[in-house]
Amino acid sequence: MAISAPDYSGPSLDLSEEHEFIQRAARDFARKEIAPIAPEFDESGEFPMETIKKMGEMGFMGIEIPEEYGGAGLDTMAYVLAMIEIAKADVSHSTIMSVNNSLYCHAIYKVGTEEQKQKYLIPVASGEKVGAYSLTEPMSGSDAGTMKSRAVLSDDGAHYVINGTKSWVTSGPVADFVILFTMTDPEQKHKGITAFLIDTDKPGFIRGKKEPKLGIRASATSELYFENYKCPVENVLGEVGKGFTIAMAVLDAGRIGIASQALGVAEAAYEAAVMYARERHAFGQPIGSFQMIQQKIADMKTRIEASRFLIYNAALAKMKSKDSGGRYTTEASMAKLFASETAMFVTHAAVQIHGGMGYSKELPLERYFRDAKITEIYEGTSEIQRLVIARNELGLR
Ligand code: CAA
């Protein structure tokens, strides 16, 4: 009897025809264009510019941005479904996609001026250019409000002079534009942070070395240095002093994307584990007939489906917030927390089920395991997600 992978059509939540279409398009693209090259890009650590450009042509780099601004004009459910499929083939590609869509494009669409949208949103949402988001600094990660970089208004009021070091910037080594969060009034603490649109081809902008990483090796990450970088006042994104609120609100959207990529890699590892548990024999029977393997399969599947519901729930909350203006912070944090811990649980169990083959670079299991780890760290660690959820539930600040 031929053994085939379990069919992953998802839970019984009805998707519209449009959603099924984008899911299928992303799945076909990911299988054909990304999965075959993922191992070699993981090995070399090279940035997969060619496939990222193709993803732009498919509309995957600005899914929720209206067509008039270069995007695909779809909704958050479409974004989530596409992200799951891309991550299933390769988490690195999905990381680049996630930052471009939900941190960079989303921020400019939400608070940018018309001029800013024309210059900084259209080329990035259409995938011609790459966008990055820069909040973290060497001494300011989870405690994002304590940054040391500074932007000082020039005497003639025409531009800000920016100095400082930012770190862990996804796509930092290749980005054409960066949304930078920096301090314009340190005395005001988080209320003194402002967001700026940065052109990376201007003097005073310097890229640091590419970080050598455990996983998502094809998604380039680096420090960025600002040395007397002159930023025109027109490039303030949103209001002066509102940068921290923008950064946090945008991270709510970003966290839904990270949750989706975590689910994608968990699904990939799970499907491989089920196949292997059916095929591999030990002690005269398929290893899937042993209860210790069955327990792992049951827990993997249950956590995967629970993640999917939390992600869909967060996507629906974000879509509703478009009209109500309300926040979906808790929903986004719950989805990210649970899905990222599920990705670690599932990839760990999948490696274990594969035994030595799970540890071998002949199969993608070890890559899934290495790639999954970052989802518990970036865009807010699991500890920060728990803090956010608990504070909101308890009404604390
Ligand atoms: N939406 C809108 N506003 C928000 C908000 C949200 N989700 N969360 C907080 N705010 C606002 C608050 O209302 C408050 O505003 P006012 O002062 O005007 O009332 C202000 O922000 C400060 O809020 P807090 O007092 O809660 O701030 P805090 O200093 O205690 O920090 C935190 C809260 C949750 C710990 C926050 O700092 C945080 O999320 N830290 C993690 C940062 C993070 O995720 N970093 C990842 C960077 S991106 C990345 O990973 C790299 C990449 O390229 C992918």
Plain-language structure description:
This protein has 397 residues and is an alpha+beta fold. It has three domains: 7-129, Butyryl-Coa Dehydrogenase, subunit A, domain 1; 132-241, Butyryl-CoA Dehydrogenase, subunit A, domain 2, CATH 2.40.110.10; 245-394, Butyryl-CoA Dehydrogenase, subunit A, domain 3. It contains twelve helices and ten strands. A four-stranded mixed sheet has the order 1-4-5-8. Strand 2 and strand 3 (159-170) form a beta hairpin. Helix 4 packs antiparallel against helix 5 (91-111), helix 7 packs antiparallel against helix 8 (291-324) and helix 7 packs parallel to helix 9 (329-354). The longest helix has 37 residues, at 243-279. It is globular, with a radius of gyration of 21 Å. Acetoacetyl-coenzyme A (CAA) binds next to strand 3, helix 7 and helix 12. The site of acetoacetyl-coenzyme A has 25 residues, from strand 3, helix 7 and helix 12.
Sequence-ordered SSE layout with sheet pairings:
Blueprint: H1 17-34, H2 38-44, H3 49-58, H4 76-89, H5 91-111, H6 114-125, E1 131-134, E2 150-153, E3 159-170, E4 177-183, E5 193-199, E6 205-210, E7 221-232, E8 236-237, H7 243-279, E9 281-282, E10 285-286, H8 291-324, H9 329-354, H10 356-359, H11 365-373, H12 382-394
The chain binds acetoacetyl-coenzyme A.
Acetoacetyl-coenzyme A binds at residues 99, 133, 135-136, 142, 144-145, 168-170, 190, 244-245, 248-249, 251-252, 327, 329, 378-380, 384, 388, 397.
